[in-house]
C-alpha cells in the first residue's frame, strides 16, 4: 500500500476549500440588524432590508399627519407640528446609517437621541405623538441583535403610552384612538421577533448548506484520490514487474520478452483508459476483467494462483466492490507478500484473497491500518453494508476478506 498516497489524500481533504459562510447568528437577531464591526457587504444587505421596510412604515405615518391637521388647532400649530414630524421621520429613516458602524454604546446613544425627539413631540403635536413612538420600537433592533433589547424598549414605550392615555383621560383616549396605540406597539414588537426568527433560520440554513458543500468537496476529493490509487497502483505494479521480467528475458528468450512488453503496452493503455474514466467519474470495476488481469499478473510474477474462472458467483450488488478488493489484494501480493501461492475464493456474498507470503501478516500493524488502499476498500465496503477484515490466512500469509452480511 502507498502510505504517501494516503497522507496526500488526508492532506487534500484537510485543505479542501471551505465555503465562506456567515458567522453564527445572534439569538433573536433582526432582519436589518448587523453586529458592530460588520463588513461593508453585511451593511449593504442590512441597508437594503431596512429601507425596504422603513419606507413602508412611513407610509402609515400619513395617517398621523392627517390626524394632526384635523385636530382643530391653528394653521401655525399645524405647520410647526408637520415640521417636527418631518424631523422625527428623517431621524428615524437615517439613524441606522449612524448605528451600523458604531459600537453598542454608540447605538444606544443614537437610539436615545431619536427617542428624545419623539418624546418632545408631545409638546408640539400633543397626545397623538404616541403613534410616532412605534418608530422608536422599530429602531430598537439596531441596538444589538438581541430580542430582549427590543423587548425592553417596547415595554418602556407601552408604559409611556398608557401614561399619556391616563393623563388625557381614558374616555378621551378611547375616543381619539390613543388607547389603541399600545396594541399596535405590541404588534410591531411581535413582527420584529417573527422576522428576526426567520432571518436566524435563514442564516443557520445558509451555514448548513455551506457545510454540506464543503463536505461534498472533501468527499469527492477523497473518492477521486481513492480511485486514482486503485487504478494506477495495481496497473503500475504489474507494468513494473513485467518490465523487469522482459529485461531478464531479452537475451534468453526474446520472443517471450517481446510478449511481456506487449502486455506492458496493453496494461499502460488500460491504466490510461481507467484514469480517464476516473476523471469522468463514471468508472466501475468489472469483476471478470479483474480476475483475468489478476491471473495474468500472478502468472507473470511466477506465483501459483488458484482463482475462480469468472465472477458469476458474486451477487450483482457487490461485484464492483469485489473487483476492487481483488485488485487491491493482488496488488498487495505483488508488492509486499513475496508469496509463492495465492488463493482467491468467491461466493455470492464474500470474496477472500489469501497468500503464503510474509507481507502485512499483522492486521494491527501500522502498515495494515494506514494504507490508502485498505482504507479506501473499507470505505467502499461500508457504502454497501459489507465488512472488510484482514488477518493471517490458512496458507500462512496475509488474508484479505470482504463479506456482505444480512442478505
Measured between the Cα atoms of the first and last residue, the distance is 31 Å
Report low-confidence residues grouped into runs of 5 or more.
1-28, 361-370
For the report, how would you describe the main beta sheet? 5 strands, mixed
Could you tell me the radius of gyration in angstroms? 38 Å
| Number of spatially distinct domains | 2
Q: Let me know the number of strands.
A: 5
In order across it, which strands form the biggest sheet? Answer: 1-2-3-5-4
The secondary-structure class comes to: alpha+beta
Global geometry: rod-shaped
The total of helices stands at 14
| Mean pLDDT over all positions | 77
Strand content: 5-15%
As a percent range, the share of helical residues equals 55-70%
Write down the secondary-structure element order.
Answer: HHHHHHHHHHHEHEEHHEE
Amino acid at each position: 500500500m502507498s502510505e504517501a498516497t494516503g497522507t496526500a489524500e488526508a492532506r487534500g481533504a484537510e485543505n479542501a476549500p471551505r465555503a465562506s459562510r456567515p458567522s453564527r447568528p445572534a439569538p433573536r437577531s433582526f432582519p436589518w440588524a448587523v453586529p458592530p464591526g460588520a463588513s461593508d457587504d453585511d451593511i449593504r444587505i442590512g441597508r437594503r432590508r431596512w429601507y425596504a421596510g422603513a419606507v413602508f412604515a412611513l407610509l402609515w405615518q400619513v395617517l398621523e399627519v392627517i390626524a394632526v391637521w384635523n385636530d382643530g388647532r391653528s394653521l401655525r400649530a399645524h405647520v410647526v407640528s408637520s415640521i417636527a414630524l418631518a424631523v422625527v421621520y428623517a431621524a428615524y429613516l437615517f439613524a441606522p446609517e449612524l448605528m451600523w458602524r458604531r459600537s453598542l454604546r454608540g447605538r444606544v446613544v443614537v437610539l436615545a437621541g431619536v427617542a428624545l425627539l419623539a418624546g418632545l413631540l408631545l409638546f408640539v403635536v400633543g397626545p397623538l405623538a404616541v403613534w410616532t413612538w412605534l418608530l422608536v420600537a422599530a429602531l430598537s433592533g439596531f441596538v444589538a441583535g438581541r430580542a430582549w433589547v427590543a423587548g425592553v424598549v417596547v415595554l418602556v414605550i407601552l408604559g409611556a403610552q398608557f401614561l399619556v392615555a391616563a393623563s388625557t383621560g381614558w374616555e378621551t383616549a378611547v375616543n381619539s384612538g390613543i388607547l389603541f396605540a399600545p396594541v399596535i406597539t405590541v404588534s410591531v414588537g411581535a413582527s420584529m421577533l417573527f422576522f428576526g426568527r426567520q432571518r436566524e433560520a435563514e442564516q443557520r440554513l445558509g451555514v448548513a448548506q455551506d457545510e454540506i458543500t464543503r463536505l461534498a468537496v472533501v468527499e469527492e476529493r477523497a473518492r477521486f484520490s481513492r480511485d486514482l490509487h486503485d487504478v494506477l497502483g495495481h496497473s503500475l505494479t504489474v507494468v513494473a514487474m513485467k518490465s523487469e521480467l522482459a529485461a531478464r528475458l531479452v537475451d534468453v528468450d526474446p520472443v517471450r520478452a517481446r510478449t511481456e512488453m506487449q502486455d506492458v503496452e496493453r496494461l499502460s493503455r488500460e491504466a490510461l483508459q481507467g484514469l480517464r474514466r476516473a476523471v469522468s467519474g463514471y468508472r466501475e470495476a468489472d469483476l471478470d476483467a479483474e480476475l483475468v488481469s489478476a491471473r495474468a499478473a500472478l502468472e507473470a510474477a511466477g506465483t501459483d494462483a488458484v482463482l475462480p474462472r469468472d465472477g458469476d458467483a458474486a451477487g450483482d450488488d457487490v461485484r464492483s466492490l469485489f473487483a476492487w478488493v481483488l485488485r487491491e489484494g493482488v496488488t498487495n501480493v505483488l508488492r509486499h507478500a513475496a508469496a509463492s501461492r495465492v488463493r482467491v475464493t468467491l461466493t455470492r456474498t464474500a470474496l477472500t484473497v489469501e497468500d503464503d507470503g510474509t507481507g502485512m501478516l499483522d492486521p494491527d500493524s501500522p502498515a495494515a491500518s494506514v494504507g490508502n488502499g485498505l482504507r479506501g476498500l473499507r470505505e467502499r465496503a461500508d457504502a454497501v453494508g459489507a465488512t472488510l477484515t484482514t488477518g493471517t490466512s490458512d496458507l500462512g500469509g496475509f488474508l484479505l476478506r470482504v463479506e456482505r452480511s444480512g442478505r
